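To assess whether ligand presence alters the predicted conformation, the chain was also submitted together with 3,4-dihydroxyphenylalanine. Input:
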Amino acid sequence: MIDRIKALTEEINCLTATDAQAAEALRIKYLGKKGVITSLFNDFKALDSDRKRELGQPLNILKNLATEKISALKEAAAMAPDESVAGLDLTRSAAPMPLGTRHPITLVRNEITAIFSRLGFTIAEGPEIEDDWHVFSALNFAEDHPARDMQDTFFISRGTDVLLRTHTSSVQARVMEHTRPPIRIICPGRVYRNEAISARAHCFFHQVEALYVDTNVSYADLRQTLMYFAQEMFGPETKIRLRPSYFPFTEPSAEMDISCNLCGGKGCSFCKHTGWVEILGCGMVDPNVLDACGIDSKKYSGFALGMGIERITNLKYQVKDLRMFSENDKRFLEEFTSAR
Ligand code: DAH
């Protein structure tokens, strides 16, 4: 029997199969119920125990060899190209696949954060589901401020102070609570307000907030930062104008206009013939806000600003209807294919 095992070992080492069927035939021939190796095992049972001890191991090695060899042949057959692709050029590059496009809001958000990161601002994010403290109280909103009203704010459930943030200024409060100055952050995100949806208003939109807190931060620093931002975003010709305004969390507060980028400030229907368009709110962080967030207002000062990304996008791309941003009309989205 040992000679038979040796002969079969050689035979099996040389096996080949052109396809999966041929490999299966080999399995039946050697390892099937009536296969060559199976019948050797039957003969083995009849041997006396000395011969069994001598032949048991070589026989098992032979069986393992056959099993491995035949499954390798099967695998190779499965990998080989089948008849149906014969003659095809498998080295040809694939047909071009149309790539998706970035959403205009994403494009503009990235542009805004890139401009501020060149000034050393880093991105901070906060939750969209917020509490009254971070959205209102820490930001110096009076108890009876109308923004806290159900008509403006979406509350998650009645009688609790869990709500959808109405502005990204909430991230200011969160960051100040757990960071020591200097703080220089830019916070992009989605905000929610209880507004009827129209071409000019939506119940959700996007904002970017910026905050700078350090010793000796002045209004001149704010103005210079705004100037840099406006010219990077809308071109070096852009002029800025600051008008006094009011926000609970800044004192003094201002609104910034830029010279109309459509008519260059000469006056057109877009800027209602004033030559200016409003783009953001800003101011010096109110000392009450610093103190509420655990930052010593006698030692530190800061400026903050906040803008709507939709508004900036409208100015850049003249999108007339706010609803376009959330309707996912491919014809609209594909217009931004070549934009950065
Ligand atoms: N949070 C304001 C809003 O939603 C925007 C804003 C105004 C943010 C002035 C600021 C700021 O940081 O200083 O309308």
